């Protein structure tokens, strides 16, 4: 099983910020921090506020962070009789030799394995080199931003060459029956085919999940076994529990039986998803339309959230509640992605796309028209839409969603659209050019 995301194929390229403010710099580099202890000692109140703000972010949710005032002197006094944590962050306004002298005093109390990050006021290359010689892990110059700080800590504990952390995409429906699972499965399959990177679908609808049906699989074991004993899950057990559907796509299927109770804890979900994301570049989590502590935890901890909604009032209300929660709890993350599905059902009164977007203050990344024939046939065949009919309208929509989630551009589709816009004869002329 591949442990690294592979480069984009010639059909895609890095996404360059089409979605404006949502493509905040550094947001992809600040990866989740493991369960470590972090203690900070600040000279400046504003820096202390930045540290406290960062401590409340989802990426540091597993770390134990405490922020104190007093700078390096307070840290030296504190560690005379106390063991040092995994990471010490010191904020100081001292210059050159004074700063180095204080850090030397701190070093005398540091236990082996403790790392130190210094936040200073002076952009001095010589000082930076002296700090590195003394074993300081990082030197940041104020003013700093929360994401910059989180990225620096992430770089200390997440080595992209040896310990990759995959991206988690959480799919949830604004209402039951709006097609969130279908969107999740088709987008995950498209992602695996277009990027040629390994993708795992985790079906957390344990009683009624459709991942096995949609991929024409009937696994004996799956995600329920992992959730029952998450502490036992490792790379070897994960390989046994996953069901491989194609070269790059595997599913963590739900058991879909009703003769057992499913008592899922938020911590169990965290542990299982953590193991999966350590093994593949992309994890698509298919969430049921139910609200529980673990559902909320998965949504808040995911790298990207995709909300599928149908254009009616109940969907609008529910989608707005989810969007408002995510905006409040995930201040350092991009906005969730909105997919409007089953648009244009005959004789149904619908809320327009413009009204839906205005109410949510969110642009839809894709609008999928109602197409009962294609979707029902694909479901009955145990196929994805593009497998069954590559020319179906929804095929292009799933590519749109996959590229928007991963912040890449589908250059192959863009070329086709550009050719069509130039002339209706462009596709024919392109074929003639290749024949020469």
Helices, strands, pairings?
Elements (H helix, E strand, L loop, with lengths): L11 E3 L22 E6 L2 H11 L8 E6 L1 H8 L8 E5 L4 H12 L7 E6 L4 H9 L4 E4 L4 H12 L9 E7 L6 H16 L3 E5 L7 H4 L8 H6 L6 H7 L1 E2 L4 E4 L13 H12 L4 E5 L6 H9 L2 E6 L3 H17 L7 E7 L9 H8 L3 E6 L2 H10 L3 H4 L4 H14 L1 E3 H12 L3 H10 L1
Parallel strand pairs: 2-3, 2-4, 4-5, 5-6, 7-11, 7-12, 8-10, 8-11, 12-13, 13-14
Antiparallel strand pairs: 1-15, 9-10
Structure description:
The protein is α/β, with parallel strands linked by helices and 436 residues long. The chain has two domains: 34-157, Rossmann fold (3-Layer(aba) Sandwich); 167-416, 3-Layer(aba) Sandwich (Rossmann fold). Helices cover 42% and strands 17% of the residues. It has 18 helices and 15 strands. The chain has helices at residues 45-55, 71-78, 96-107, 125-133, 146-157, 180-195, 211-214, 223-228, 235-241, 266-277, 293-301, 313-329, 353-360, 372-381, 385-388, 393-406, 411-422, 426-435, and strands spanning 12-14, 37-42, 64-69, 87-91, 115-120, 138-141, 167-173, 199-203, 243-244, 249-252, 282-286, 304-309, 337-343, 364-369, 408-410. It has an eight-stranded mixed beta sheet with strand order 9-10-8-11-7-12-13-14, with helices on both faces. A five-stranded parallel beta sheet has the order 3-2-4-5-6, with helices on both faces. A two-stranded antiparallel sheet has the order 1-15. Strand 9 and strand 10 (249-252) form a beta hairpin. Helix 1 packs across helix 5 (146-157), helix 2 (71-78) packs parallel to helix 3 and helix 6 (180-195) packs across helix 16. The longest helix has 17 residues, at 313-329. Mean pLDDT is 86; it is low at 1-11, 13-27 and 418-422.
């Amino acid at each position: 099983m591949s442990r690294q995301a592979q480069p984009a194929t010639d059909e895609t390229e890095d996404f360059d910020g089409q979605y404006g403010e949502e493509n905040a710099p550094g947001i992809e580099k600040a990866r989740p921090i493991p369960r470590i202890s972090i203690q900070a000692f600040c000279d400046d109140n504003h820096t202390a506020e930045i540290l406290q703000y960062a401590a409340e972010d989802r990426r540091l949710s597993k770390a134990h962070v405490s922020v104190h005032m007093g700078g390096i002197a307070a840290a030296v006094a504190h560690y005379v009789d106390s063991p040092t944590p995994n990471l010490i962050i010191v904020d100081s306004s001292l210059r050159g030799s004074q700063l180095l002298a204080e850090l030397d005093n701190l070093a005398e109390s540091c236990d082996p394995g403790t790392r130190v990050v210094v936040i200073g006021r002076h952009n001095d290359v010589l000082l930076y080199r002296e700090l590195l010689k003394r074993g300081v892990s990082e030197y940041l110059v104020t003013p700093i931003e929360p994401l910059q700080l989180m990225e620096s800590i992430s770089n200390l504990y997440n080595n992209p060459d040896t310990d990759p952390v995959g991206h988690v995409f959480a799919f949830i429906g604004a209402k039951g029956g709006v097609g969130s699972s279908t969107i999740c499965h088709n987008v995950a399959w498209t992602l695996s085919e277009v990027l040629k990177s390994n993708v795992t679908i985790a079906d957390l609808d344990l009683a009624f999940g459709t991942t096995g049906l949609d991929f024409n699989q009937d696994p004996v074991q799956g995600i329920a076994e992992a959730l029952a004993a998450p502490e036992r899950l490792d790379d070897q057990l994960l390989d046994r529990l996953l069901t491989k559907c194609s070269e790059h796509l595997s599913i963590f299927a739900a058991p879909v039986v009703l003769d057992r109770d499913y008592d899922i804890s938020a911590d169990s979900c965290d542990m299982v998803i953590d193991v999966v994301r350590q093994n593949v570049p992309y994890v698509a989590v298919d969430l049921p339309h139910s609200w529980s502590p673990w559902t909320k935890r998965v949504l808040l901890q995911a790298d990207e959230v995709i909300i599928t909604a149908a254009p009616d009032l109940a969907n609008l209300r529910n989608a707005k509640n989810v969007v408002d929660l995510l905006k409040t709890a995930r201040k350092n993350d991009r906005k969730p992605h909105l997919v409007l599905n089953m648009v244009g059902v005959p004789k149904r009164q619908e809320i327009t796309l413009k009204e839906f977007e205005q109410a949510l203050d969110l642009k839809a990344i894709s609008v999928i028209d109602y197409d009962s024939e294609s979707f029902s046939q694909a479901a009955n065949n145990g196929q994805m839409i593009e497998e069954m009919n590559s020319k179906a309208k929804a095929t292009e929509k799933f590519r749109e969603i996959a590229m928007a989630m991963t912040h890449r551009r589908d250059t192959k589709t863009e070329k086709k659209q550009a050719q069509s816009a130039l002339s209706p004869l462009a596709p024919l002329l392109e074929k003639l050019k290749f024949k020469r």
